[in-house]
Design a protein that fits this description.
CATH architecture of one domain: 2-Layer Sandwich
Structural class: alpha+beta
Strand content: 5-15%
CATH topology of one domain: Beta Polymerase, domain 2
Radius of gyration: 26 Å
CATH class of one domain: Alpha Beta
Number of helices: 19
Distance between the termini: 77 Å
Shape: elongated
Oligomer: single chain
CATH superfamily of one domain: Beta Polymerase, domain 2
Helix content: 40-55%
């Protein structure tokens, strides 16, 4: 007899009173042929998953799985009408994800998920958790999602994740999957927790060694009361999340200081030239994880020029113009705005300075407006042609910046 249950995130978040949109279903006691005869459309490659003919929601046949090789894809799946709901739920990662609800609203919870929801605990269902390295990333992401609700990671789960790292299972993660989980985690309410959990179990050193190397590296206390470079990057990420949900901005804030890990020991705690040292490290990280071009470009821009942005109001008009041109601010103002958000997050990502104002962002945006009042057609109307148009346009915009700076300074003094 076929039975259908709502499972996973929808049940979990429904019980939590947390918003959700996607619904996943598991079907017990059915065959693929029966599903297709009822109009369900098969889409699963590794195991039978079907789309509902009307809602388009996913319905998976109850299944078990057996580990056959290292890594995420090393599994053999088995489906049969004889597989029970309890057997299906046993293969899931966390107890809070191993809860089902039938069509009458009855809850089926064989592994204590409801109790863990009430206790705000992230706990693995069984030792089978250790067979799939992606679950390390998923648990870290869930920790980032529910941290603000008071959720913590069960110690036995943390230890199991550490064992998976030590046994080399995490080394088999597919880079694209690492980035997919990371990008999703960046948009969670507390993305810094994702990094913290990965670091605590040792996974960060495997998948993002460039970031892991920052922890324990000191910087001047008068500028960074938190001292630790790794901690500063987490604080910058936390601030970035308060300013934006844009994963490009969040990624840039996280990796903007990678070069500080390579500062010569004799120069510590100062980090002269860390901006340029960060660039190849970001390139390496992005190459390894297959980070999208837009994320890479913004991360490089922020790493290279965040200290210039912090000094924006002190820069000469020609230097400010060069900064805006380097950031392609005239053609891509959105890129410039993203850059400014990440720089603001960096400035506020310091102990005691979280609420400190960052007027540099508005200053640069107003400077861009002043420059944009002068367009190429204004230069061409003077009879200038060819390459000279760009040079003349830059001169006129620098002149406009001089006037803008004077007005801004005068206005600031009168306030």
């Amino acid at each position: 007899m076929k039975e259908i249950y709502l499972v996973g995130g929808a049940v979990r978040d429904k019980l939590l009173g947390y918003p959700y949109s996607e619904k996943d279903w598991v079907v017990v006691g059915a065959t693929p042929e029966e599903m297709e005869s009822e109009g369900y459309r098969p889409v699963g490659k590794d195991f039978p998953v079907f789309l509902h003919p009307e809602t388009g929601e996913e319905y998976a046949l109850a299944r078990t799985e057996r580990k056959t090789a290292p890594g995420y894809s090393g599994f053999v799946f088995h489906t049969s009408p004889d597989i029970t709901l309890k057997e299906d739920l046993l293969r899931r990662d966390l107890t809070i994800n191993a809860i089902a609800e039938d069509c009458q609203g009855n809850i089926f919870d064989p592994y204590g998920g409801r109790q863990d929801l009430q206790s705000r605990i992230l706990r693995h269902v069984s030792d089978a958790f250790s067979e799939d390295p992606v679950r390390v990333l998923r648990v870290a992401r869930f920790a980032a999602r529910y941290h603000h609700l008071g959720f913590t990671l069960a110690e036995e789960t943390r230890q199991l994740m550490s064992s998976m790292v030590q046994e080399g299972e995490v080394s088999h993660l597919v880079p694209e999957r690492v980035w997919k989980e990371t990008e999703r985690a960046l948009r969670e309410p507390s993305p810094h927790i994702f990094v913290e959990v990965l670091r605590q179990c040792g996974a960060l050193a495997v998948i993002m060694p460039e970031l892991d190397n920052l922890f324990g590296v000191p910087q001047p206390k008068q500028h960074h009361p938190e001292v630790d470079c790794g901690l500063h990057c987490l604080m910058a990420l936390e601030q970035a999340r308060q300013l934006s949900e844009d994963s490009e901005v969040l990624f840039a804030a996280l990796v903007h200081d990678l070069g500080k890990a390579e500062t010569p020991t004799e120069e510590l705690p100062r980090h002269i030239g860390h901006e340029s040292r960060s660039l190849p490290l970001i390139e390496t990280l992005c190459d390894r994880l297959g980070v999208p071009k837009k994320h890479r470009e913004l991360a490089l821009s922020v790493a290279r020029d965040h200290t210039n942005c912090h000094r924006a109001m002190e820069l000469r008009p020609t230097t400010l113009m060069q900064l805006m041109q380097r950031l392609d601010g005239f053609r891509r103002p959105q890129h410039l705005e993203q850059f400014l958000l990440a720089c603001e997050a960096d400035a506020k990502g310091r102990t005691g300075l979280e609420q400190h104002p960052y007027p540099q962002r508005e200053y640069v945006l107003q400077a861009l407006v002043a420059c944009n009042r002068i367009q190429a057609r204004d230069v061409m109307e003077e009879g200038i042609t060819g390459k000279a148009i760009g040079e003349a346009l830059t001169r006129k915009r620098v002149s406009a910046l001089k006037q803008f700076k004077q007005q801004f300074t005068t206005q600031d003094k009168t306030q």
